[in-house]
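Model it.
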Amino acid sequence: MADPVQNIPPHILALLTRLHDESTAQESALSRAGIDPAKFHDVMRDKFIALDKDKCQFIYQLSRAINAKTIVEAGTSYGVSTIYLALAVSANVAATGGKGTVIGTEYEHNKATKAREYWQECGEIVTNVVDLREGDLRETLKENVQDVDLLLLDIWTPMALPTLKLIQPKLRHGAVIIADNTVQFAAEYKDLLDHLRAPGSGFMNLTLPYSNGLEMSVYLPQ
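Modeled.
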């Protein structure tokens, strides 16, 4: 299968392969063991919960296609998908000029610390464009966010709609919103999907046939 992530330093590709393998192994173990809903957040506190590799490849190619230079990632976790976004933004800046940034958000300090370690392994092609904001994103995204090209929602489902409502006034015309696992967690995403799909919302929506669903919405307000 073709891989859109091209001309990437081998050490970054090797790191991404390792991180995806670790994430997949964790997910398989969790699937076998099952999770007590009452303990869900405690169990997931130290887990990757990384975006699937094919989805990461897609958001990389999408970011290149729309020449995204300002991206907001809601739910950075250990920073795997952030690497793809940063690589795309760096490539876009190199190709067409200007400045670029990937604004990451992470509530768990330990995850944020580990993510920064992985980005340091990648080098300046990633670290130079990432702005990681720790804490409650409802506070950390209030300021210094504008002209957003792409918003990735890979976060605890109750936070998805509040995040979108916070960022929506800062989206450029034609900005893209990506939300993960929208088929698997359709009930949990109901408020978000109702908002996106409501008549007059300004969003054009399509559910992509990736594992567990990937919602792609384009912001085209009248």
